[in-house]
Amino acid sequence: MANIAIFLAEGFEEIEALTVVDICRRAGLTIDMVSVMGALQVTGSHGIEVKADKLLDDVKFDEMDMLVLPGGMPGTTNLEKTEKLMEQVRAFDAAKRYISAICAAPGVFGRAGLLQGKKACVFPGLEGELKGADVQMTETTVDGHILTSRGMGTAIPFGLAIVERFCGKETADELGKKIVFRV
After folding, report:
1. C-alpha pair distances (Å), 101 with each of 69, 145, 150, 180, 182
2. Residue 14 near residue 151, CB atoms below 8 Å
3. Cα–Cα distance, 86 to 92 (Å, whole number)
4. Which three-class secondary structure state does DSSP give residue 110?
5. pLDDT, tens only, 30-72
């Protein structure tokens, strides 16, 4: 089964991160919540403290199949300032390994030059951050190895799109029914 890392920085959007973790774990995928803050406890943008599974320095990136960036402010900015993470995001992109982001976080990919000629979506009003992208207004956009989504309200379809990548459409659809999502 796939190994996924979702990165938490102070000010991350709790629903976007935890919904993805929940959906992936329900599908049997391994997803680690990784703190980039140097401590396992990370506080989200709405004051909810979450205990990550591991620290950034403990991640074996060669064993990861996907990197996930949740949105939220200043969480997205804090992720982008984490050079070790950004080095890995660029390396994953260069190797055509899965990278994904939701809400404001797709802008990180845009500013890093990773969306040139790719379809992508982002939180409404931040479309200009998707440098070189073919901007979409869909809930979740998949273009090759890059998955993007628009915000808190699209966290479930984003999580299901990740499940679909690794478990297939049938499994993702079945999980969607089990959680009473668009039945």
Report:
1. 5, 12, 9, 24, 22
2. no
3. 10
4. helix
5. 999 999 999 999 999 999 999 999 999 999 999 999 999 999 9
For residue 123, give Cα distances in angstroms to 33, 34, 76, 105: 22, 23, 12, 9
Q: Which two tokens stand for residue 85?
A: 């993470």
**Short-list 43, 52, 35, 56, CA closest to 14:** 43
- CA 179 – CA 46 distance, rounded (Å): 25
* Among candidate residues 132, 111, 44, the one with its CA nearest the CA of residue 120: 132
Cβ atoms of 69 and 102 within 8 Å: the answer is yes
pLDDT of residue 182: 80
Q: How far apart are CA 1 and CA 144, in angstroms?
A: 20
| Residue 118: per-residue pLDDT | 98
**Structure token pair of residue 60:** 């074996």
In tens, the pLDDT along 9-23 reads 999 999 999 999 999
Q: What is the CATH number of domain 3-177?
A: 3.40.50.880
Distances 183 to 22, 172, 176, 177 between C-alpha atoms, Å: 19, 13, 8, 6
